[in-house]
Design brief:
- The chain is mostly helical.
- It is built from 26 helices and six strands.
- The strands form three sheets. It has a two-stranded antiparallel sheet with strand order 1-2. Strands 3-4 form a two-stranded antiparallel ribbon.
- The longest helix is centred in the middle third of the chain and has 46 residues.
- It starts with 8 loop residues before the first helix and ends with a helix.
Amino acid sequence: MLALNWGTEKNRQRALETIQSNEVEMERSFQEYMTDKDWEFVIRTWEHINSFYEERSKVQEELYGNPLNKEKGITFTIGGREIQGQYFPIVYNPKVSAKVSDFETEDIAKTMIASNAIFGTGMGATKPRLDVVKGKSLMLDFDVIPNAITEAINHVTMRKAVTDVNKLIGNSRFQEYIVDKFGMETYQFLRTWVRDNWKDEAAKLDAWGRLVMTLKKNTSTAVMAGRVSVALQNALNIPVAMYRIGVGNTLKAIYSAGAGFYGYGTSTYNATRDFVLNQSIFMRERVQTLDKDLKQGLSIEGKGLRIGDTNIGGYKAEQLANIRDDINQMGFRLLTETDFALSIPIWKFAYDKKVLELQSIEGITAEFVEQEAISAGDRAVRDIFGSGDTKDSAGIQRSRNAFTQLFVPFYSYANTLYNIIAEGNYARKDQGNYGQFVRMLWWTLTAQALGMMVYKAMTNGDDDSPEDLAKSFGKELVSQATMGVPIVRDISNMAMKYILGEKVFNKGNTVMAASIVEKLYDVGNAIVSPNKGVMDVGRSLSQVSNRITGFSDTVTDGLWTLAKFALTDTDAKLEDVIMAII
């Protein structure tokens, strides 16, 4: 990161201020520790970030009349190699700097209530730089790189559109019309929606808030990364698709997309997949927008093994952290690919349908047809599978209160299902459309509850009686109906257990970020229980550490299960071990 900040005079001054050194010592360190491969990475990173300059400058000039000032790079020599430096974003570490910096997640403008305040953030590259800055330290995390790229793409693609719509929303006549027709709450919602299309609104958190959010993020990764059961349950999105576009159309979409998985399949499958991912930015970024909590779990956060923002363990821990990140990425890829198995066919179906609809209309351009078709595909995926994008998130997901965030883990799909239920209910209430209401009850509640009942019966290893199946179906039905209502969904789960005569308070009742307490209890229970052994203690300890370091429970649980099967006297069969891992 210091080398990346060595390309311009102003970056260099801040880098030296950060480490309290001088140019001679810094370049001596570069020569000693940096290889040609390292410098290639630095140069390619500069080139990629600076490749957005022309388009960003054009946007600035069209909006404000002035082009974007380009920071001039300097030429320097390291180990006989001449290097042409280039612009790199200056981002300060808010925990070290004396003042609040322009670091994105700590930008003070984000704490302002007014919707217009957020439009000044996410524009770090357009701000003038002071020649000399004292008392501030650079943020030496690799997260600066993807954040800069995201800012550049957002600037090029969204700034003009959001600025124009924001001007429209701010027009007094428009405001009067909306307030008169729909009320002030609707107008405020529109302002928030426009703002969220530009930039996520975050808040400065105190120590407690940072701890809670760190535990929530790491727990999300521990629970979801590589979780085969959750990946398989993506198949239960099929009934929702059938409700939205019809049974025949859903089957047609799946068949027309071709057979394949994980990027490998028939020529039709490969062609469909490549086409969709090439056309839609939304689908390409789905690994990041599948769910708001999963999106948070994919942050680079700098190298090393971290607890919160603290890098611990030195070089060896850094290597372990790299392995962790690779494994977690594969785990998230599994979830994304099982989502793609249905979302790509649905996207392509909606795209083709819109193209056919618009091609028969005279006077519209091919570009317009293409844009509308892509929007239709993106909208179909959002309506069926949900999205973790800020603009698609429920208000409670955007809450800046860490305590509130405890109760909305993995809420993106729950919010989507809640909207479908509400839509069906309003169709019955306002339009008397009982047909849509009944279809909603069947496809989005009953069919999914039946699917979960069957899945659990097949994987729990027990011979379920009709009574057991009925209880399971009842719990799943209530769970599906209430998953979109925070807190209520937790209470309803416990209420169903009470009604069915089961233990109310047990594993799984704790909120996501607080599950580390549950895992600590499991450690103590494993130690004192005569029925638990070393393997059980190890498994529980690893689950605690996973919530601190953000490693996958699936991997550690699988390793402990295999170790128990291999090293202890057990009657378990191989298929039992496989099911336990899954």
